[in-house]
Amino acid sequence: MKVDFSKDFTKALDKLSGKIHHSVVEAINNVIDAQTLDDISNCRKIETLNNVYRLKIGSKRAFFVLHIQIDGDLAKFEYLVSRGEAYDKKNMERLRKKDV
């Protein structure tokens, strides 16, 4: 699967260090290697949105929007936030705008 990263996601990833940084990179590699969504561990669809999924990585949550294109699947990682911020109203509204 192809992946792309938003500016917000990249900035959040750059702030991480040590074990959690390594875990996020492993999760991204898991998405790259996946043939289908079922191959991605700790991945769950956000029920109220059509194309938004969440990866659980320790105390962090990575949200990505899955776009199906003619030439293949593209998972664009939008946000990397802590578990406490993951489902707040502001974050869900930002994800809703990305869900096309």
SSE topology sketch:
Elements: E1 2-5, H1 7-15, H2 18-33, E2 43-45, E3 52-57, E4 60-69, E5 72-82, H3 89-98
Parallel strand pairs: 1-5
Antiparallel strand pairs: 2-3, 3-4, 4-5
Give me the count of strands: 5
List unreliable stretches of 5+ residues.
none
Helix-strand sequence: EHHEEEEH
What sort of overall outline do the alpha carbons produce when their principal axes are compared? globular
Work out the helix count: 3
What percent of residues are in strands? Answer: 25-35%
Using only CA atoms, what is the Rg? 13 Å
Question: Strands across the major sheet, in which order?
Answer: 1-5-4-3-2
Which key phrases capture this entry?
5 strands; single chain; 100 residues
Commentary on this structure:
The longest helix has 16 residues, at 18-33. The protein has 100 residues and is α+β, with helices and mostly antiparallel strands. The protein has helices at 7-15, 18-33, 89-98, and strands at residues 2-5, 43-45, 52-57, 60-69, 72-82. The chain has a 5-stranded mixed beta sheet with strand order 1-5-4-3-2, with helices on both faces.
In short:
With 100 residues, the protein is an alpha+beta fold. Helix content is 35%, strand content 34%. The chain has a five-stranded mixed sheet with strand order 1-5-4-3-2, with helices on both faces.
